[in-house]
Amino acid sequence: MSRLTRYLKHNGLTLAFGAGFLLTVAGQAVSGHAEFNNQLVADGLHPLSFPDYLATSDFAVDVTENWQSEYLQFFLYVFATVWLLQRGSPESKELHKAGPESDEEQMVGPHAVASSPRWASAGGWRQRVYGRSLGIVFAVIFLWSWLAQSIAGTAAYDEMQLRDLQAPLTWSQYIGTADFWNRTLQNWQSELLAVASMAILSVYLRQRGSPESKPVGAAHTSTGVEG
Fold first, then answer.
1. What is the rounded CA–CA span in Å between residue 67 and residue 142?
2. Residues 153 and 183: beta-carbon distance below 8 Å
3. Cys-Cys link to 152, which of 6, 38, 61, 114 (CB 3.0-4.6 A)?
4. Rounded Cα gap, residues 71 and 145, in angstroms
5. Nearest Cα to Cα of residue 88 among 209, 205, 211
6. pTM value?
7. How many CB atoms sit inside 10 A of residue 191's CB?
8. 10 Å Cβ neighbour count for 221?
């Protein structure tokens, strides 16, 4: 097996979803450009070129409002599954393991092994930070994308206000509007529904060979068991 073949095999999940992400962003940009120009023409304005559209607040807010909802989902899920359980779900820890678990179970400090990450065997703040690094990074990306969405959303909203000969809003005014919360909450509710559905449906349904599913023959009550 060549180095390239091995690399593709060992990183197939990330590469496949990364490629899918780039393709869907490109498709969104093309369709969004067409829709945006249709609206401009309907309003008696000149259409924009594709590069100019990519620099608009409309494109930015459409992209970032999806990002922030996805990373909110990951952030909440990573932290919630430390304490919250679902009997029979492979998405849940075993029922007796609620909480951050012991140092021995987590292989940190004196319980770290030779292959453990360096900060896992360190003490003090480095171990505490590394032990929560996944949730922290998801939280930072969520906050960044939420801020980007709100700023781009303010610009897009003000553009429509000016077209209608109405006064623009400041950022602080915009994040209190129905437009902002409608955009935000319609994404949040879909992400929370998806997580809840995954947690409960995986109790009773199976996908053979998937680590997100229990083994096909596992009992419905088996918790924290992956296929």
1. 7
2. yes
3. 61
4. 9
5. 205
6. 0.84
7. 19
8. 9
Sequence-ordered list of residues with C-beta below 8 angstroms from that of 76, at least 6 positions apart, any chain: 192, 195
Alpha-carbon Rg for the chain in angstroms: 23
Rounded average pLDDT per 10-residue block, the chain, 227 residues: 88 93 94 91 88 91 89 91 90 87 86 88 88 93 93 89 84 91 88 90 88 86 79
User: Which string of DSSP letters, residue by residue, matches 36-92?
Assistant: HHHHHHHTT-PPPPHHHHHTSHHHHHHHHHHHHHHHHHHHHHHHHHHH---TT-TTS
Looking at residue 18, the DSSP 8-state letter turns out to be H
Q: Are 200 and 69 in contact (CB under 8 A)?
A: no
Q: Which two tokens stand for residue 73?
A: 């989902």
**How many whole angstroms separate alpha carbon 221 and alpha carbon 86?**
10
Token pair in block for residue 31: 């369709």
pLDDT (0 to 100) of residue 227: 62
Cα separation of 144 and 147, whole Å? Answer: 5
pLDDT of residue 2: 85
Q: How far, in Å, CA of 87 to CA of 2, rounded?
A: 44
